[in-house]
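User: Second chain of the day. Same drill as before.
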Amino acid sequence: MDYIKVKGLQKDEVIGLVKEWIKLYPHSFNPEVNFWFYQLADNQVVIGLHDDLSTLAVSLLVIYLTSAVKDAQDAEPVVAFVTVDDNEILLKQNYGRRAKIVAKSTDDDSTGVIILLENNYCVDYYFHGKAHKIKDSQLVFEEPALPESIENTEKEEIFVGDVIPKKIIEKSLEPDASPWKKLMWYAICTVVGLGIGFLLVYLYF
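Assistant: Same format as last time:
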């Protein structure tokens, strides 16, 4: 299961942030892509991620959420755990491995993430060029177990199709909507998303 853990915000606040993030990428996801939300007892919110979300997309969402919660009371680093199934950031030989993704920086000029694989191979990535191996990172991959109750508990769920009008999504998925155009949207909207994230922090905290 791929998921993100957020501490420092209530579930409704996290849902609102994810909806705003989706709106930044109207040309990137199918309407069936969904997110589910579960409130843990220790003031953490788990965001369940759809299998179609790439490592790049999850990294951008981690950056966006990190910008929003960094001034929240009792906040902890936003962290994602995913199974690698694409090569947008990592090489194909990493397919099937679990990865931990955290923000390295949310500054406009150096926005980046750290990706730590289950074999403790570690890279940083700044949303341009290639990922770079971090030598002697001293980081050790650990993935805390989620409560078993999550599997059988009703969770709040949203779909991309509920947030973005279907006509916009269908137009973006036409044959001439190339992957390169989508990646260009990723790069442009990252900067916009960070600005909105800082504005949300200013307004609510």
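The helical segments are 11-23, 55-69, 149-152, 160-163, 166-172, 179-204.

User: Great, on to the next one.
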